[in-house]
């Protein structure tokens, strides 16, 4: 499906544009405070009638700028270990490529059947996030580690290329079990690998013509503003409140897709 075709199918109304911009804003704010922004962008596009595969692919595009800025914020940490993490980057790229191609191989009806279950799993993973944070480990390098760690990162990247909601929590948990370094170093590595996963998936989705660019263009500036506002929100709203909101959105979307199915 070409981008021009998508432009014809998804002709935005003023109401849809306002909803998508607001979703982008909330997504950016949630990502800045507690994560889980993908639930909001995916849900908003679902509500305005975007097919689930296109909504999923477009969410990857809208979240990408946030991955970049989060990685740059950790650049002083990344400078110390990026060479040792190159193998994990290659493994992540391979996994994301596989996951993105699996998504494109599915039809929208087939993917729609899977979506509520994926949403429930991702919501549970996100809800468990505070208990999945890795404990500090001795060592100064976030090195590649064991074969088990490489395999865990590959399958996490497959999931990230295929769906992605809750990927950050999943990756931080697996890296905490398999890599050396304190929490901030592991979070920096997670952000670096998330950029690789998202970039590969986006290339596949754009090549496959499954990105709804009008929706993405509306949501991206909303996400940028939301990310900035997230700093203000983080100082005034308890993280548990934001996390509860994201979990409620995830459960609502799962119910929505179960009801549609």
Description:
With 261 residues, this protein is mostly helical. It has one domain (3-260). It is built from 13 helices and no strands. It is globular and about 50 Å long. It starts with a helix and ends with a helix.
Gyration radius from CA atoms, angstroms: 18 Å
List the uncertain runs.
Answer: 1-10, 140-144
Q: What percent of the residues sit in helical stretches (DSSP H or I)?
A: over 70%
Mean pLDDT: 83
Question: Helix tally?
Answer: 13
Largest sheet: none
Range of strand content: under 5%
Shape summary: globular
Instruction: Estimate nothing, just give the exact number of structural domains.
Output: 1
Tally of DSSP β-strands: 0
Look at the helices and sheets and give the structural class: mainly alpha
Q: Can you write the helix and strand succession as a string?
A: HHHHHHHHHHHHH
User: Could you give the distance between the termini?
Assistant: 24 Å
Features:
261 residues; 0% strand; disordered N terminus
Topology:
Elements: H1 3-9, H2 14-33, H3 37-47, H4 52-73, H5 75-78, H6 86-105, H7 108-127, H8 129-132, H9 147-162, H10 167-178, H11 183-207, H12 213-236, H13 239-260
Helix pairs in contact: 2-3, 2-12, 3-4, 3-13, 4-11, 4-12, 6-9, 6-11, 7-13, 9-10, 9-11, 10-11
């Amino acid at each position: 499906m070409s981008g021009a075709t998508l432009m014809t199918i998804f002709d935005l109304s003023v109401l849809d544009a306002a909803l998508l911009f607001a979703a982008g804003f909330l997504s950016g704010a949630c990502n800045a405070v507690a994560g889980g922004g993908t639930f909001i962008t995916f849900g908003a596009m679902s509500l305005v009638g975007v097919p689930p595969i296109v909504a999923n692919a477009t969410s990857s595009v809208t979240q990408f700028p946030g991955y970049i800025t989060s990685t740059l914020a950790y650049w002083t940490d990344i400078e110390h270990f990026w060479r040792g993490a190159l193998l994990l980057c290659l493994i992540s790229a391979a996994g994301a490529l596989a996951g993105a191609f699996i998504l494109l191989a599915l039809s929208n009806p087939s993917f729609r059947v899977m979506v509520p279950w994926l949403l429930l799993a991702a919501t549970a993973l996100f809800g468990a996030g505070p208990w999945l944070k890795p404990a500090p480990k001795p060592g100064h390098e976030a090195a590649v580690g064991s074969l088990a760690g490489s395999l865990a990162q590959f399958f996490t990247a497959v999931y990230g290329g295929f769906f992605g909601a809750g990927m950050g929590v999943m990756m931080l948990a697996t890296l905490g079990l398999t890599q050396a370094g304190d929490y901030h170093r592991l979070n920096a590595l997670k952000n670096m690998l998330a950029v690789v996963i998202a970039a590969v998936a986006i290339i596949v989705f754009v090549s496959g013509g499954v990105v709804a660019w009008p929706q993405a263009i509306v949501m991206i500036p909303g996400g940028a503003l939301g990310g900035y506002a997230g700093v203000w929100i983080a100082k005034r709203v308890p993280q548990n409140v934001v996390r509860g909101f994201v979990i409620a959105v995830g459960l609502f979307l799962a119910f929505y897709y179960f009801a549609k199915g």
